[in-house]
Design goal:
- By secondary structure, the chain is an alpha+beta fold.
- It is built from 4 helices and 15 strands.
- Helices cover about 15% and strands about 35% of the residues.
- It has a 13-stranded antiparallel β-sheet with strand order 1-2-6-7-8-5-12-15-14-13-11-10-9. The chain has a two-stranded antiparallel sheet with strand order 3-4.
- The protein is globular and about 55 Å long.
- InterPro entries: ACOT8-like_C (IPR049450), Acyl-CoA_hotdog (IPR042171), HotDog_dom_sf (IPR029069), Sec_Metab_Biosynth-Assoc (IPR052389), TesB_ACOT8-like_N (IPR049449).
- Pfam families: 4HBT_3, 4HBT_3C.
- This is Thioesterase family protein.
Length: about 300
């Protein structure tokens, strides 16, 4: 049961300059195995969809734990970033305290492999295998970089907001920690109509979160799981449990709005795929994801 004290704490957190930084604020604990890392973290209520913690947020928190332990054990690899994360969801954590158990599988000059298990109340609930490497930067510009979207840089007139109390905001609490708008043109379900299984949206982190380049990269990874399930436009509403998700970090986002575009290759009878890309305010591709998920029951 949520108390008034809980709500007051949530409102205070949501109004801070850098609420997502709290997801990545970790306390080191003694590990069970020599050579492994173990961290305590907290994922607050605002990073939930419905009653459960948002999947992309758990990937981002796990990436922060993997990055910190790799730098602790291998300080010469401190410039590496989590280029990809392959995630299996064993269960659905509740908001609150979590533990990250970290194991380094390989250390190389170009590539390092790090596994992270998110544990809550003694149960392993989320497992992610990260591949670390070096992000492209100004010294290595893209050889091929087409226009990734015609979505305007900022929310257009008529965009659907996620403000608390709105139809979307009552479900997607993540918007209490950053600005979020859904593109109406690609969301016919809003008008009780059907359309293609595709969605687009805008996200803008708080200034303090954007000001920290590392936190901004974790937000980009989190954003790659932010669009609603694409079968919503086909009349399928409700929880769509993810079977497996792979997230790619492609670059450090520039300050400003992030644009998220979700599409599908096929929506089957019981399972569907979803590809999401994240484009920053300069038009650069900064993150991607691909996931398989279970189809919810159609709306009746």
């Amino acid at each position: 049961m949520t108390t008034e004290t809980d709500l007051s704490a949530e409102r205070e957190l949501a109004s801070t300059d850098a609420p997502f930084s709290r997801v990545c604020a970790l306390t080191e604990l003694a590990a069970d195995e020599p050579g492994d890392g173990r961290y305590r973290g907290v994922i607050d209520d605002i990073w939930t969809i419905g009653p459960k913690v948002h999947g992309g947020t758990m990937v981002a928190g796990s990436a922060a734990a993997a990055s910190r332990w790799l730098r602790t054990v291998e300080p010469d690899r401190a410039s590496m970033a989590p280029l990809s994360g392959s995630t299996d969801f064993l269960g659905a954590p509740e908001p609150g305290e979590v533990l990250y158990e970290v194991t380094i599988r390989k250390v190389g000059r170009q590539i390092c492999l790090v596994d992270v298990t998110l544990v809550q109340r003694g149960r392993p609930l989320v497992r992610t295998a990260f591949t670390f490497g070096h992000l492209d930067g100004p010294d290595r510009p893209p050889l091929y970089s087409p226009e990734h979207t015609d979505l305007p840089v900022e929310p257009s007139d008529g965009a659907i907001g996620y403000e608390p109390g709105s139809s979307m905001g009552r479900i997607v609490h993540v918007a209490r920690g950053m600005d979020a708008f859904l593109d109406r043109e690609w969301a016919p379900f809003i008008e009780n109509a059907h359309g293609e299984p595709r969605l687009r949206m805008w996200l803008r982190p708080r200034p303090g979160d954007q000001a920290d380049p590392e936190i901004a990269t974790y937000i980009a990874m989190m954003a790659a799981d932010m669009c609603p399930p694409v079968p919503t436009n086909l009349g399928y509403f409700g929880w769509s449990p993810t079977v497996q998700m792979t997230t790619y970090l492609r670059g450090r986002p520039a300050p400003g709005w992030l644009r998220v575009i979700a599409t599908a290759h096929e929506v089957g009878g019981g399972i569907f795929d979803s590809d999401q890309i994240v484009v920053d305010s300069t038009g650069a591709l900064v993150a991607q994801s691909r996931q398989l998920a279970l189809l919810p029951s159609p709306k009746r």
